[in-house]
Fold this sequence. Notes:
Helix content: over 70%
Number of strands: 0
Order of helices and strands: HHHHHHHH
Largest sheet: none
Number of helices: 8
Strand content: under 5%
Structural class: mainly alpha
Radius of gyration: 19 Å
Amino acid sequence: TSQGPKDSPRLLPFLKARWPLWLPLFLAFNMISILSFALNSWMPTYLDRQFGWTPIQYGSALGLTSLAAAGSLVVNGYIVDHFYKSGVKDIHLKFYIGLMALIMPAFFLMFSVQNPFVSVASYALVQFVTVPFFVYIAAVIVMMAPSQVRGRLTALYAASFTILGQGLGPTVVAAITDYVFKDEAKLGVSLAIVAISCIILAFMGSIWALTQIRKALREDAGKASA
């Protein structure tokens, strides 16, 4: 029988009982959100200040990178579905971690090169991680949370991504540039600090969460075979 509203598990006790999984996921994907909003807000200004690009130049280039990143979801989804059907139940987060590791050099290149086309190409690769990140956390929620709390849990994550990402991402970059370096020409350095810090924290948090997912899957398999 289905559970009624009074029988539905409460969200906070559920999170408290399973914090070793949901806390690192919260930290990791909020780091990605902060990174995404920071790059979306400041990349046009960086291309203008650093390379003298006009809006028609960087607008077209950045638009194409976003389209390519969104289009990659089709291929990535096919790969993830294939492995999941083959029995790799932790593939959603594992694939995203692998994607971060593969593209990690681009985070270091993006604001350290002197060629604008290499910088934009690096940004395009970074977008493969930052644009579709909500798809991966949503998949984990569906797989690891009971149906009675999935909606509330998804809403909690979505709200945090908007509040923390939009609130901190652009602001932190501006604060570092204005109050630490006190030099508008250092925008690239500020962006590099935020980008590299966020992706490393996101990578570490995701690995921590993956260990918890594997532990939960082993426990479920043990109960099923008992």
